[in-house]
Design a protein that fits this description.
By secondary structure, this protein is an alpha+beta fold. Helices cover about 35% and strands about 25% of the residues. Strands 1, 4, 5, 6, 7, 8, 9 and 14 form an 8-stranded mixed beta sheet that branches. It has a 4-stranded antiparallel beta sheet with strand order 11-12-10-13, with helices on both faces. Strands 2-3 form a two-stranded antiparallel sheet. The longest helix is centred in the middle third of the chain and has 20 residues. The structure holds (3R)-3-hydroxy-3-methyl-5-(phosphonooxy)pentanoic acid.
């Protein structure tokens, strides 16, 4: 058994969404995306290689089985191939992301696993290579390697080596808040993978892809200028456009619930009354971008929306790290 390596990574919220692949096997996106890594919602992964007939994977104290176990085992195969090793692995992950809050814990999980598994296998990957590896587990995990504001470049190469994330600005560059309104604790009915396949049937999908570069440029400029209104408006637009693509897909894909729409309306009302707050949901949970001073009132307003189960508030967070 090699010594266990342990790493932790935070979830991230996409401000310009990734929704569609140009290569499903390599998880290469049809467009670039921009995110904010969030503090305090993290996954810690420990990996050791050696012994055993098969990989053993324990997620939050329970042995993983079925598709979940297979997905991690396939990911470990990539690390084994890269490191030239054959031994099976013992993997344990522990999440501080409350279940069903609709904040992709898979992004944090595969970012943490990429770092822990590569180190346990005896290889030291630089951040771009680590991002490319994490991407293979879950596309959005490519971004959770880094803290603060992050851009995942679409890349042009068929092998995906240039489809990696890079930091745009560190977490302390701009103090903002993300208020998360949980409207449903039920697991997502349609996975991101299946949702993206369905999105490609939408007559609006080509427009979504064609508009991405303009959204990315707008978001980059807004982050550079620390312009909350500009960033909020483009992020809100990107999320709504993602839903519009799904509504027109065959069969249709609607992630919203009644409470989701209730939250959107409440956020727009707050804005009309002078509080700069922007709703960026990938459904059904609503994430609201706002200034630190407005986070309390925004959380209170969302808590009062019928159907909202709980509300939590996050600050910008750091990138993936090895545990001491
Ligand atoms: O990383 P995946 O395959 O779970 O896809 C993430 C999809 C969204 O969260 C909706 C958008 C994004 O950019 O994170």
């Amino acid at each position: 058994m090699t010594a266990a390596a342990t790493a932790r990574a935070n979830v991230n919220l996409a401000l310009v969404k990734y929704w569609g692949k140009r290569d499903a096997a390599l998880n290469l996106p049809a467009t670039g995306s921009i995110s904010l890594t969030l503090d305090g919602l993290s996954v810690e992964a420990s990996v050791a290689f050696g012994g055993g007939e098969a990989d053993r994977i324990e997620i939050d104290g329970a042995e993983a089985a079925g598709d979940e176990a297979l997905r991690v085992a396939r990911f470990l195969d990539l690390v084994r191939a890269e490191a030239g090793r054959r031994e099976r692995a013992l993997v344990t992950t522990r999440s501080t992301v409350p279940r069903g809050v609709g904040l992709a814990s898979s992004a944090a999980a595969f970012a943490a696993l990429a770092l822990a598994a590569s180190r346990a296998a005896g290889i030291v990957l630089d951040p771009p290579a680590l991002s490319a590896l994490a991407r293979r587990g879950s596309g959005s995990a490519a971004r959770s390697i880094f803290g603060g504001f992050v851009e995942w470049r679409r890349g042009e190469r068929p092998d995906g080596r240039d489809s990696v994330a890079e930091p745009l600005a560190p977490p302390d560059f701009w103090d903002v808040r993300v208020v998360v309104a949980v409207t449903s604790s039920a697991p997502k009915a349609v996975s991101s993978r299946a949702g993206m396949e369905r999105a490609a049937t939408s007559p609006f999908y080509p427009a979504w892809v064609a508009g991405a570069e303009a959204d990315l440029a707008e978001a980059r400029a807004a982050i550079r200028a620390r312009d909350l209104d500009a960033l909020g408006l483009v992020a809100e637009h990107s999320a709504l456009e993602m839903h519009a693509v799904g509504l027109a897909a065959r069969p249709p894909l609607v992630y919203w619930r009644a409470a989701t729409v209730g939250c959107l309306e409440r956020v727009w009302q707050l804005r009309a009354e002078g509080t700069p707050a922007f709703a960026i949901d990938a459904g059904p949970q609503v994430k609201v971008l706002c200034a630190p001073a407005d986070a309390g009132p925004v959380a209170e307003a969302l808590r009062a929306v019928p159907g909202v189960e709980r509300v939590l508030t996050c600050a910008p967070g750091g990138g993936a790290e090895l545990a001491a």
